[in-house]
Amino acid sequence: MGSSSLFLFFSSALLPYLCLSGPITIQTIKQPFTASHFQYIDQSGVFLISSNGNFTASISNFEENSPYYFCITHVLSDAIIWIANRKHPISDSDKLYLTANGLAINTADSSSNTSVAWSTQGLNSSSQVSAMQLQDSGNLVLLDRNNVSLWGSFDHPTDTIVMGQSLAVGTSVDCYTADNDRSDGDYRLVVTDGDAVLQWNRMSYWKLSAEPKGSQDSMVPVSFLALNDTGLFLLGSDRSTVVIKLSLGPANFRVAKLGFDGKFRVSKFVDKNWVQEFVSPADDCQIPLICNKMGLCTSGRCSCPPNFHGDPLSKSGCTPTDASLALPSGIFYGNSSASCYLLENPLGSIIGSSSSGKRLGYMKTIVVSSRVNKLNEDTGFPIIALILLPSSGVLLIITAVLGFICWRRNRLYRTAKSKLGRGYSSSSELEIISVPGLPVRFNYEDLVSATESFSTQIGSGGFGTVYRGTLPDKSVVAVKKITNVGVQGKKEFCTEIAIIGSTRHVNLVKLKGFCAQGRQRFLVYEYMNRGSLDRTLFGNGPVLEWQERFEIALGTARGLAYLHSYCGHKIIHCDVKPENILLNDNLQVKISDFGLSKLLTPEQSSLFTTMRGTRGYLAPEWLTGVTISDKADVYSYGMVLLEIVRGRKNSAAQPRSHSLENDSSYGNGSSSSSSGWEPRQAYFPLHALEMHEKKRYSELADSRLEGQVTNEEVRKLVKVALCCFHEDPILRPTMVTVVSMLESINPVTDPRQESLNFLRFYGRRFSEASRIEFGFSSSDKLMSCMSAQQLSGPR
């Protein structure tokens, strides 16, 4: 009896693994459905196949021990035609979910914290998904119960276009970074209303209309790019009028692909082999990074310019031989105009040409003089003298420099010691040791050396000033000097730092270390080289595209959701604003300054609302004496979300457009000038509410996007922002709910009008204040005319 029970026990325990691999479904899968590579390991991750057997959907990897992707594959050629989670690869156990809200891939980190790696976005919230279908064309679609398509992979291409697929104007195809890295690369194919162009850093380097093999049939605006069995076409809005065509021979299966080398290729699959039918640009030197940065391309061959060194075929490219020089800017001289101008765009590779043109390009570089050799030949001056004299001078210079360094270090040490205060002693460090979980502890002298005596300031905020520093291991860091907090006991300070240091998330800036020495308090963070969101969003650089803005909004929401709901100690940020949202080169979002509000003394907490840089984002309850909760962060996030949509501050002066003049309630509608622009203030959240009531969402989007965003895309973000503005904090969604709405896991709820009426009061007060400000030259006079209650609105 005992052995039988034991057998049954082990059999039941092993049953899930014995039955692990699920069957492959043909064409259609009903929700709910779950899949992972591990579940379908016997089928190499394949769980769905089209009815004609030409395409499969799977969770697969492309090399052994490499991450996994949800992808669509052409069976005969084994070519990947679409990847869902190219930016966020997953493990073999991470799961794909099909629910009534769409598709989503959830991934878990080493601490078992779950996050969404990818999901279908932009679904109609009024319709529920009933099934997923892999069509014979290779298009993966989501259907409602009436078999109406709600979403399709053809509308969200990666690097490949297949026969039967068409791309609407504004859609782009992005190349991979490399064969073993499927994230977005350097090049992009964009469909515009007049052409199809290849771009690098938003600069076009090829267009279909200029292709010798192409021909233009009509002058109507382009609406679609289509690939079929006879070629590649740009079509008008009726899908039948050909604007530009690239005619090719007949084919049973054909793909167009943008390679990570910057070339656009069209190939057909014949007799188990790929045959390349078209490739462009034909001239390798036309590709911006063919020889990497500052490499010189001459007749397809790469080299470094004079007085530059390095390998032009490596990622680092060519650098000046004189290491003290930065990479040069580009200067062009116009022969006809006899004038020079600088290039504002980034420099890639350089084309070497012997032909004469209207413009000449110049590079700032060091010219090695040959005068020494000429002097030796002409005068017979002894070579030994040419060696000894400069060597003696160099020796004297080195001696002087070493002496200066020693003097400077002694001076820095004395300065640092005086700043630490008389009460400092090494015995006080014993207090720190008793606090568990602390990050790396730096000495004050280490930070003085790393920041070169705090010489490079990169930012400032309510809690202090931030400096750029370099640690001995050459890693770049941001050193924040804490100045606007009370002088707490060292143990209390370190306890809070231990909590901040143990809070880890992909969307939170990592705290690398700290300094609590004498009276000095410093925090050492990882360095984000793109700086804060306000510089990128409001600055004069390249305009953020809509998808980039959405990813920033989603990443910020995920970081706040983690602080509020998933980390060991619930943290309310208290200062959510673009200045505290940092970006790296890949526009990855990381929130900074979280947890610092705990460093305030009670007296300082009561004055927190007067800190500079926070007025535009504070919830009304900050000035009403109500206990502050995580819903205050939700309100601030809503303000940031509207600024991401608009591309400007919510209270920034703006042009008086025709639509604004017709909406008299926006900014009180008064006009003192008939000119196209006047320096007036307007409360944008009120305008967003009014446009929501009129369902005119696209008018709220940043005009610099030039219409490359749909009304539906703007609607989602604006409705989420308005829900965050509810006057009653209880009615505001949690940040976890905000994330689920942005990811389309849950439908976006409608904001409650009765809880947003306070925006109309704030809007009128703000308009009155702006007229007062326009009439007074001093901002102090403006402040004196407004009460604290009035100020709480437009913050």
UniProtKB/TrEMBL annotation:
Feature: compositional bias, Low complexity: 664-676
Superkingdom of origin organism: Eukaryota
Record flagged with keyword Transferase: yes
Domain Protein kinase: from-to ranges: 452-749
Keyword presence, Cell membrane: no
Keywords per UniProt: ATP-binding, Disulfide bond, EGF-like domain, Glycoprotein, Kinase, Membrane, Nucleotide-binding, Receptor, Serine/threonine-protein kinase, Signal, Transferase, Transmembrane, Transmembrane helix
Chain spans, region Disordered: 652-677
Matches recorded under SUPFAM superfamilies: alpha-D-mannose-specific plant lectins, Protein kinase-like (PK-like)
Membrane topology term: Single-pass membrane protein
Catalytic function, reaction form: L-threonyl-[protein] + ATP = O-phospho-L-threonyl-[protein] + ADP + H(+); L-seryl-[protein] + ATP = O-phospho-L-seryl-[protein] + ADP + H(+)
Binding, ATP: K481
Gene Ontology CC: one annotated term: membrane
Signal peptide start and end residues: 1-21
EC number from the UniProt entry: 2.7.11.1
Subcellular location: Membrane
PANTHER family assigned: G-TYPE LECTIN S-RECEPTOR-LIKE SERINE/THREONINE-PROTEIN KINASE SD2-5, RECEPTOR-LIKE SERINE_THREONINE-PROTEIN KINASE
Entry protein name: Receptor-like serine/threonine-protein kinase
Source organism per UniProt: Salix brachista
